[in-house]
Amino acid sequence: MLIVVAGWAIPSIRARAANPSDAGPAATETATPGVVKHDHVGAPATSSPSETAEPSPAMRIQIGSASRLLTTPWRFRLGDDMRRAAPDFDDAGWETVDLTPAPGAHDADVGLTDYVTGWWARGHEGRSGYAWYRMHVVVDAPAGTAIALLAPAYVEDVYQVFWNGTLLGGTGDFSGKTPVIYSTRPQIFRLPPVAANDHDAVIAIRVWMRPGLGRAPDSGGIHIPPTLGTAQAVEARYQSEWLQTFNGYVLEVVEPLGFVLLAILAWCFRTAMPSRHFAAWLCAALLLTAAYRLNQAVYTWLPYENLTVYLTVHRVPIPLGLAAWIMAWRHGYQIERWRWLTHAIGILTVLSVVLVLTLPDDTFAMLRPIWRVPLAVVLLATALVGWRRQSADRLFTLIVVLLVAASQFSGALTAVGVPGIWFPFGVGVSLTQYLYAALIVALAVWLIRTVQRALARSPRSAPA
User: Fold this and answer.
1) CATH no. for residue 182?
2) Do 454 and 338 share a domain, yes or no?
3) What's the whole-model pTM score?
4) How many CA atoms lie within 13 A of 153 on its CB side?
């Protein structure tokens, strides 16, 4: 069953400093430029911060029975001032930004379409904190037409949308001194009936990007433009965006389910495993891996988990899971000697958990190899020693352990040129997800073969 599930999942689904430029009541923050994660595909920058804009033109939206991607002309400025939400606010001196996506553009993680570059790639590299986008529109629609606005489906990191100065909604919690980040999900705002005949209505979007996180070179602000149109047409696009979001993370549910089933199998037949300690450590490794993978789908799909909780749940199980994998195969190969090595693994694991909870993101990322590299060496050394000592099925066991190592250290593979993500059928599937799928299949076969050998050796299996 696991083989069938993994075979279905892989081809169809994935795994995805600002000082204010003008004065305002809320100060922006300074960020350290982030670490490159992926190269995004998007539209080129079309404006620079030094441009002097003419009085803001209005985008004429002829609705009919369709919808329109709001691409240009947007006015943009860093900094924060709540007066910018007002329809009569003077934005003539702001720079003009074109949010027209390049043909076939998508983000470099999930595969979300209509992706555009952020403000880092538009002359504001390294800037974080608040920024505003404004667009003047004229809506032409038949009388009685229900009009809706589809909010941006991808924004770094949180936003609020205003229509003619009225707050429609957004993502994140802006009630405190610093906004609280929740994931950006597709969202529809119903507009008042007068919107169908509004002349020079104003859409204003207030954005805040957290400093200090590792970022791609094109980070910052809106990455998928909003859509304006009839309620029916906007609803269709809303469902399409949700389908892309679902497809992008459904594998983060399928693979954890596979890990849980493997843990159940290993525990039910723990007496047939190389040792009881092996079964316990293997179950711990599988469940910890399942927890942090599943958490990505929970954070993305549901509105209950903020970024701080997500990062904690995501990062803490990783070192714990790695330590559990190492201990499992030390017991699996029955090389439990060298107690000092067990203590060293425990100390490095506790140290990594403490530091991930206390250090800033960039500092932790810089120090992470200090304990990851030694643990990688220990895992590979365990595999080599086990290869020399094991007799039965040692080649297949080595393949399983190497898949564990590759999935835990997939970043090392991308560093030597292996692509970190592919887009089969337009859906992002990461290298780690491919490795986990292979590991699930290989480990399932290995467990079944181990149980079969144990049953064959059992006296009860002998004929009377």
Assistant:
1) 2.60.120.260
2) yes
3) 0.81
4) 28
- pLDDT of amino acid 459: 62
In a domain, 84, yes or no: yes
Is the distance from CB of 138 to CB of 198 less than 8 angstroms?
A: yes
Instruction: Say if residue 222 is in the same domain as residue 258.
Output: no
Contact (Cβ atoms closer than 8 angstroms) between residue 173 and residue 304: no
Buried (b) or exposed (e) across 98-130, using 16+ Cβ within 10 A?
bbebeeebbbbbbbbbbbbbbbbbbebebbbbb
* Span 345-373, pLDDT tens digits: 999 899 889 988 888 877 887 888 888 89
Cα atoms in the 13 Å half-sphere on the side-chain side of 249: 19
Name the residue range of residue 438's domain.
250-458
User: Residue 16 and residue 11: Cα distance in Å, rounded?
Assistant: 17
Is the distance from CB of 187 to CB of 151 less than 8 angstroms?
yes
7 assigned to some structural domain: no
Question: What is the structure's pLDDT at 263?
Answer: 97
How much is the pLDDT for 38?
A: 33
Q: Residue 126's pLDDT is what?
A: 92
Q: Are residues 76 and 211 in the same domain?
A: yes
Separation between Cα atoms, residue 438 and residue 403, nearest integer Å: 7
> Which residues in the chain land under pLDDT 70?
1-56, 58-65, 194-199, 390-391, 459-464
Please check whether residues 294 and 205 belong to one and the same domain. no
Residues 220 and 265 in one domain: no
230 closest CA partner among 325, 166, 143: 143
Pairing label, strands 58-62, 129-140: parallel
CA atoms within 13 A on the CB side of 32: 10
Q: Please tell me the predicted confidence (pLDDT) of residue 460.
A: 55
